[in-house]
Amino acid sequence: MSLRQTDNVPSSHLVHSAGSRFSRIAGTGSYLPPGRVTNQDLVDRLARDGLETSDDWIVERTGIRARHFAEPHVTSSALGLIASQRAIEAAGLQPADIDLIICATSTPDMVFPSNACLIQRDLGIHGCPAFDVQAVCSGFIYALTVADAMIRSGGATKALVVGAEVFSRLLDFTDRTTCVLFGDGAGAVVLEASDKPGIVSSCLHADGQYAHMLNVPGNVSGGSVLGDATLKMDGSSVFKLAVSVLDKAAHEVLDKAGRDPASIDWLIPHQANLRIMQGTAKKLKLPPEKIVVTVDQHGNTSAASIPLALDHAVRGGQVQRGHSLVLEGVGGGFTWGAVLVDY
Ligand code: UT7
């Protein structure tokens, strides 16, 4: 088979335009695996190992009522593929129109190649750049910001940006402080070149000094996993850091655009904990009705949570064209960031 280097590479990919060039969200999509796991299902599962939890505790501390777990043979790229197909369709495009693929994930199908390359293969397209971004729960914010920068600089015209995770695979079901929090799923957007800004401003940050607070410390060596490949988290330290950086990130993107928090129609935060989301909204003086909430039904799906929430809000009629959105995430690394969007 020959390598078709120029397939899906429009002329604008090669020639930088002189006028102002921005990017806008042309379509959104998402997919949840059908296996819905309620809090009571987890209460029963943990009880078999002598561990105690309750629906009341989980709802009160996190807002989570259910999450979805993929079947063991279903990979994150398979979830991402369906979300991508839905986003491409919503944008009124064909897979062949896509000229950049970025997938945010911490649970890729393989060490390599990237999920983005697998999604490209399964979409049946060839030649456009495709790579993964690993910034854990901030991954989608990182991926969206990189795609926006590539579109603005003339490096792409129609980017597929995906967040896809199977976090259930990383969970230690003997640790009740973490295993009740996470779920599986995928979300995607198509970002398209535009003469008006859709992505108005963004900010990305990281501080590796906090790596110990949230991690999966295993790695692959000599054909097996070295160390513990399950998720470890110091929940209360993460909680405090999350509320503090999410507030700052939202202010940073608003300040860059010369806008006030009151101008936000929807806050679409990383869906980790309802109390963190409400705390951030309170600091921004936003009423809770302006927060898009899916954590109750999805749990924390890491890099998938923001595009999943966005797609649910778009398809549910909450988010409409012309609305101003702040998307923001925080996660292991530590990483955090925000994107101000005129949808
Ligand atoms: O996606 C990346 C970002 N991640 C996050 O944003 C997560 C941030 N952290 C959190 O969301 C919260 O810290 C948790 C939900 C993880 C924990 O809530 P918390 O209010 O900070 O509870 P805690 O860790 O202080 O634990 C309170 C109590 C403890 O018992 P004692 O020591 O007071 O007797 C825990 O052992 O709750 C106990 N506990 C549980 N009880 C029933 C912890 N997990 C459970 C459980 N069921 N599943």
Please identify the structural class as seen in this structure. Answer: alpha+beta
Strand tally: 15
Q: Which ligands does the model contain, each kind named once?
A: oxa(dethia)-CoA
Strand content: 15-25%
* Low-confidence runs of at least 5 consecutive residues: 1-18
Order of helices and strands: HEEHHEHEHEHEHEEEEEEHEHHHEE
**Helix-residue proportion:** 25-40%
The overall pLDDT average reads: 95
Report the span from N to C terminus.
Answer: 41 Å
| Shape estimate | globular
Using the CA coordinates, give the radius of gyration: 19 Å
Trace the largest sheet across and list its strands: 1-7-6-4-5
Q: Count of helices?
A: 11
The largest β sheet comes out as: 5 strands, mixed
Give a brief outline of the structure.
With 343 residues, this protein is of the alpha+beta class.
Keyword list:
11 helices; binds oxa(dethia)-CoA; 343 residues; 5-stranded mixed β-sheet; 15 strands
What does this structure look like?
The protein has helices spanning 11-14, 39-47, 55-62, 76-90, 115-123, 139-152, 176-179, 235-256, 274-283, 295-298, 305-315, and strands at 22-31, 36-38, 66-68, 100-104, 130-133, 158-166, 184-194, 199-206, 214-215, 219-221, 224-226, 232-233, 266-269, 324-331, 335-342. It is α+β, with helices and mostly antiparallel strands. The chain has a 5-stranded mixed sheet with strand order 1-7-6-4-5, sandwiched between helices. Helix 5 (115-123) links the parallel strand 4 and strand 5 (130-133). The longest helix has 22 residues, at 235-256. The protein is globular. Residues 1-18 have low confidence and may be disordered. Residues 53, 57, 61-62, 137, 176-177, 180, 235-236, 238-239, 242, 272-273, 276, 300, 330-331 line the site of oxa(dethia)-CoA.
